[in-house]
Amino acid sequence: MRSQPPRLLAATLLVALTAFPLAAPAAAADYERVLNGSFDSGSADPWWPGAGVSNRVTGGELCASVTGGTANPWDALIGQNGVPFESDQSYTFSFDAHATTEQPVTAAAGESVSPYRGIASKQFTVTPQKQRFTFTFTSTLDFPDAGHGQVAFQLGGQDFDNTVCVDNVSVVGGVKPPGGGNPTPTKKVQVDLVAYAPGLPKRATLVSDATAPQAWTLKSSAGATVASGQTTPKGLDATSGDRVHIIDFSSFDTPGSGYTLVVGEESSYPFDISADAFKKLRYDSLAFFYHQRSGTPIEAQYVGDEYARPAGHINVAPNKGDNNVPCRADLACGYTLDVRGGWYDAGDHGKYVVNGGIATWQLLNAYERASLVGDATAFRDGSLAIPEKANGVPDLLDEARWEVDFLLKMQAPGGMAHHKIHDENWTALPTRPELDSEVRRLSATSTAATLNLAAVAAQASRLWKNIDATYAATTLEAARKAYAAAKANPAKIADPNDGTGGGAYSDNVLTDEFYWAASELFATTGEAAYRTDVTSSPHYKAASLSREGFHWGGTAPLGDITLALVPNGLPAADVSAIKSSFATVADQHLTAMSGMGYAAPYDNSTAGYVWGSNSAVLNNATVLALAHDFTGAEKYREGVFEALHYLLGRNPLTTSYVAGYGDQAMRNAHHRFWANQNDPTLPIAPPGSLSGGPNSALQDPVAQRVLVGCPQQKCWVDDIEAYSVNEVAINWNSALAWVSGWAAEKVGTPTTPPTPDCEVGFTAGRWPGGLSAQVKVTNTGTTPWADWKLAFALPGDQRVTAGWSATWSQTGQNVTATSMSWNGAVEAGKSVYIGFNGSGSGGDPTAFTVNGKTCRTA
User: Fold this and answer.
1) What angle in degrees, to the nearest 10, is found between the helix axes of 730-746 and 276-291?
2) Which residue has better confidence, 828 or 563?
3) What are the structural domains, with CATH classification, of the chain?
């Protein structure tokens, strides 16, 4: 979650200072440089506190609590970054101030990044009486358009604790108004900067005021014309503000690299026609998570020298460590937790259960989905560059376990889960994890965090059952305990004001988390109590699935996905209704996309483009992908790739939002280690990292200065300080990993769904309290079986009491039948007949697998 990064200001120019009793502020000049100088909103944003300082807005003032004992004035700071200055121009810096105890304070202007040059500074005395101060200076540096300028108040150098309050802070002057538009250069011909897939539609966007079709040509890398045609005018595209035409060059399908689209004098960036880039992105997007690991060194053999770093937060100075973390002082929980490990959530060093929950679920679901209806070999042991790549466990599960283990550690003794753990105060940009000196604190437990833990732990138990039975039992026990604790504490909401040092992530609607957790526990155990909670939920049968999609605070569709994919014993009609809902919403996306200049499955009709909009595009692409899985309809596969084309450059900013992908890709993510923009010795964002994307609310100083008046899809800038548009986060990259993994699997697949390799016919005679079932298992594939294992779930309380022609076993509602020595070999096209007698009541099973593959039901 974003933060405000403090920087030290050096003083190089002394200026005149006037102090006098408080009077009404002077009339402002035309060009105000400071944001939120009056604090009327009650928020301190974008003012940051330095080390040893805590900010709060009280009584309409920004009050800084300063710890005494520092040596220099600049050892304790409050300030604001991104302030634009122009060289040789005059500025007036004015503010109101008072303090609990009289002390000297320095007001300063300068540079926020190395070498931290100063523009002006002046010391004055602040007393308990509120006064207004003002001084004028001429800038010696040039930071137009919200560059690296900064204003700050230096509050240190005192041997006593104090509180200093400021208000009506203003810096006015210069000859150019702040802002000026997005500095990202754009093309008139917008393409996917990376690749188009053979066999799939290939569309681009032309920005043009022309009302008639325009001639386009497709050029090879050698400059030869390989295809040509006419554009289709679309007119004004409201979301981008562009007048656009659509270029459809789908008829050309020859793989190659370095293609360009040309219209008149305008040319696109080069791109490929190839499946390779999508397959590479599958692994680069997953590599993000190893980079984000806490509590372990990131080793050069896996990431290269540029991205290698020591372990962070392992109690090695200056870290305070995560091995013995207490609760926030105001909580007084009476215990500490060892919460080492896990992933850093975003660009800061916080770790959050609700973000970790959905991110881990998406990685685990990507594996589970591939195992049930796709190709899980893509995630085999050795597929990722991680330390566990030769332990015999699929690497995707290894990476996910790094976070599952952390989530288990966040469980309090009574079963509830702590909402998050992070620094007591925001750290500076840059701050490498191993150099973070802030105290670490646990926030309170919350119902949302507890249900995230329950859901993911239950899901993990299901996936590790045949890999590590002991671990599967441990995670299931934690899931049961968490779910019971959440039901006992159904409305413990995370504090929405707990946003110092880490994001608040408060969520006051929890029915979706209850549904998700119950769905995972039911799918894993088949137990009636969880089934009842699932079927009685207002979210049952995808009732809340819409074009808005899902996210960390809206998780009900995650339960729908599990219930649709994992055999579970629900009525076939209910499972069918869930699958149909995905197709219905997918159709809504496709209808909306057909009218867009830059097609993306995103609903901006209510909130515009929001913080992390790119993750919403990808989560909605997941809905399209699952609609394809459930129906086999080609239109949904095409929609997924359209979403990827938008993210990889076919957008109004001619930018790939994925680092390392395309000639103009995101570089300067809001991140404390990938901070090359602020420190040239540090790296840029690694390949496969996803930017949050356009955010029309403009919630950071750089966006507010540079992007004023931006059309929704253009509210983005590649700047490390622009945290509301260019942050990275685990739950955004998990969405990219899910979709890119699916795309890599589907990029070369036929357009019609494959025929299942098995078919199961199930008939049963029933009487009160009992049944006798006959099962026909047919090999509908092309190769013989050497042996077979049938699996299904028995609804209700039905139990197998005796069976024949197979070895039968049952756990909860889940039944398996394994071949005997005499009937294991089944030739292609042949069948085997088995059966069982049972007790209890319920309906027929609705889904079957043989040797792990989903079967057609006869």
Assistant:
1) 150
2) 563
3) 18-173 (2.60.120.260), 189-274 (2.60.40.10), 301-514 (1.50.10.10), 758-857 (2.60.40.290)
